[in-house]
């Protein structure tokens, strides 16, 4: 078999792999494609690898053997083998791996179609030496991810500069390289020994000389025996770890040296990112494989190799992640993250200028550590309390600042998460897994069996006791209704520890009021009738519980009959009891429910019927209390009103992102549920043009966007790894203000921008954008404009400025008398704003902004507020960042009346708009032929709400509406009292073909086609 003119050259470095080399070479010899040569480079093996390779070479002349007398490492073995190769394409096969059957034939067929410089094919990962199957599958899935056809720029970006911390793989195995390129690349590579991460350096050089990479991961051709080589998850002794560190450092230094020899900024940046990723991998090994007793010494040693700030940044990363994870558990297995943070600070002490990557990571870590310590302190204080009122919750809610009111996560045994500020009802002896049936009783059982206190109380995340002495109005269910759990509510209902303790210590038992069922809860009259009126509860269950009660506690039969036939009851399972009474109650009640529970077939019960034990316990509480009143237990009773909070969810407090490798651009939008399709289109256009070197923190201020739509947007925008999307409800912030708008096309969401300075307190500068815009440029450039200390940056409003010049118009008087502007020609448009939120906080409070906004005299609402109160403190931005479209022909009819320089600047900006603003009544989703509409639809059709936008177009145009019937409620493009209107409108009504034709002529005259 001849090796003349081989299509493939297969380079096989070998060092002490005699055990695996036969499998490797046999996988090559048995390929059905025959035009190949193999060059086995025996790297001075000390086993019989040379003999094995010689035997195969004797049997098949396509196999050649290069025997080295000195061991030089994997990189130089590949380099030596490549120099001897003659194939049109070169493949690298490690001697402890193999090719799957038919691999070369499949690769050859794919190459022949496109002749790529690099063909990446798939692999099969086989776990060895105890390597876990999961690790093998994860690696296989990562290595086999498809990728698009890539030119050099795309390839380098995807492999080295990707926002994904792991990027695409840079292995030179499971790839075929065009032979001449491969030989040229290895020829310029270093003659120094490289190991451990040599692939990263080799692939950087190979990729920088290649122009076309194809991927076909359907060819599962490379069999990778993970665990045979250095890839393992076993413990790593300190000396071996430091050797690995030095080996990796050699690789990134060679990459930097190569990059410096080129003129390519992309290659240079790739080398920088290569170093970051190798450092990331190395420090992960420190965390996962170095023993605990060697970690400190290893960290200090590694700092001398990779750099103090690099090591410290990784330590802070671990501190951040572990502290956050520990917040999920009240008693974490380890708090070593505290030591890692201290060690990082020790390494960086004395360094005058710390990199942003470290300071951002440090700040994030310290935030989580502080929260962890705060949680630990809180629970210690709660443990010491002798009065404990447990607040049952199954989700994150607002809480009152109290040591007595202690939240408990009910049903936590079946919950995938933990709430750091809550106790969990699955600790100690518990019945947490019965929560679907027992409801908040799982908290009562947990407290009974595990908690020491003098008083035990129970309420719910929505319902609390009113400890004030002021009677409050109740609804038809006997509840006081309020909205938010906040400081005002705490003051109103005396929900502070001192007030609570003063009341509790006076009584033996406290309950909610015993309401008259003839007057409340639909006036059913008796507890029995109330149960029978509940459509989802089974009448027989109440009867069986009564029978069990009478059987177990005959002396309670009289009290049960009196309760069920009477007219009064307390509800909600809310009570506070002295210790001895609470224990007696639990010892009495739980056996009754246990007997009921084990004799009930729940298989056909609805979700509400499944909660029957919880419903029964409310009735049992009443019977228990009636019994002790009847027998004269002489308990001191107190009834407190029940306050039902309709919005118990926590006030949303956004936190800084833990992003350290890219500058962050904070961007804020405002929208409602109806505007989600437009919001999606706007954000999508921004991210399609975003710079991958920045990270975009996108926050949507809203009050009613449905959760499913939020989830759909989060899923859609996952395609952008350099973006974070979050929604925050601002309803609470706007409560109490009379906010309305004076224009039909302006919604109340326009006021949300005033909240930015409070909602994002950790940003001193924020970009605000309306949701009726299209973004063609990179908004990082807009954000990075130096505001020169001004309160905000904005673009002048040509519409307003033109109206100032309308003869006999009213706008000038409005600007001077209502807005009180010194120079009305400085009026700006508020749809695109770069906000100096630090300065805004220093000048105005949220209350001031919203009070100003409540002024009914303003025409343009929030925009007028900003102009009235920021005049003289504005940096005017280039026109192309807010190009308002030609709504209703205003460009030709109105804008021409603006000051000459303003008009010329606006017209010039239309040639290359970075942002197009569809301000006014004409929108692309109501009039698809409006100005710049095609630009809008280019992005809209790629979003998941495209069909909804089309539906709105159809709805807006489903009937011919005469001009002037609906549109007069919107602002006309031509200014007030303009004489042009009196002439033009009768001859060319808005929306008529004649008017459209004249507009087209006007656009042609101005050079727009």
UniProtKB/TrEMBL annotation:
Superkingdom of source: Bacteria
CDD domains hit by this protein: Glyco_tranf_GTA_type (cd00761), GT8_A4GalT_like (cd04194)
Every Glycosyltransferase 2-like domain range: 9-119
Keywords: Glycosyltransferase, Transferase
Molecular-function GO terms, alphabetical: glycosyltransferase activity
Residue span(s) of domain DUF4422: 388-628
Pfam families: DUF4422, Glyco_transf_8, Glycos_transf_2
Keyword Transferase set for record: yes
Family annotation (SUPFAM superfamilies): Nucleotide-diphospho-sugar transferases
PANTHER family: GLYCOSYLTRANSFERASE (PTHR22916), GLYCOSYLTRANSFERASE EPSH-RELATED (PTHR22916:SF51)
Name of the protein this chain belongs to: Glycosyltransferase
Species of the source: Bifidobacterium adolescentis
